Amino acid sequence: MKIKTIAILSLLTLAVTLTPTAFAAEASNSSQPSNMIETRFSLEAPIHDTYVISSDFGLQINPETKESKGHNGLDYATAKGTAIFAASDGIVLFADSNQGYGETIIIKHNSEFSTLYGHILPGSFLVKPGDTVKKGQKIAEVGSSETGDMLHFSVIKQGTLVDPTDYLPQSTR
């Protein structure tokens, strides 16, 4: 298990630390105003069926222990076996088990963004590392965590876990 934990941390590091593309370098030397070269990165919800966001991104307080803890993504509570879809086009970096999220997929979308899908139903992977995926393509099915049937969904921007709702359509938050 320790080797897989190290491997997933290495992949997350790779997913978030690749250097910007040549376009970004050219853009920084451009005479255009910066707002002319920036593009808005947007995602589609990884779950299309009925769901409830059972845990939001950010600081959360355990109602029993009163301890606060950061939560690095969104938890989509939905039925086990529900389809999980790629939130954007990209390349699969990781599709295997890891200690924190159980069965997990990581997709690199561009030089800035990657997404992580955790608590996947074992045996339901439809992708493997190196595969190219399209936004809306089914990649796996929802599994379970210690708190129930759910998908854990994280967004990583330039090495930092960020709030997925900043990149999802308002109607899916």
From TrEMBL:
Keyword set includes Signal: yes
Pfam families associated with the record: Peptidase_M23
CDD domains tied to this protein: M23_peptidase (cd12797)
Domain of life: Bacteria
Domain M23ase beta-sheet core: 70-164
Any GO MF annotation of the entry: metalloendopeptidase activity
Keyword Plastid listed: no
InterPro entries: Cell_wall_metabolism_enzyme, Dup_hybrid_motif, M23ase_b-sheet_dom
PANTHER family linked: MUREIN HYDROLASE ACTIVATOR ENVC, PEPTIDASE-RELATED
Signal peptide feature range: 1-24
Record's protein name: M23ase beta-sheet core domain-containing protein
Keywords for the protein's UniProt record, in alphabetical order: Signal
Organism field: Brevibacillus formosus
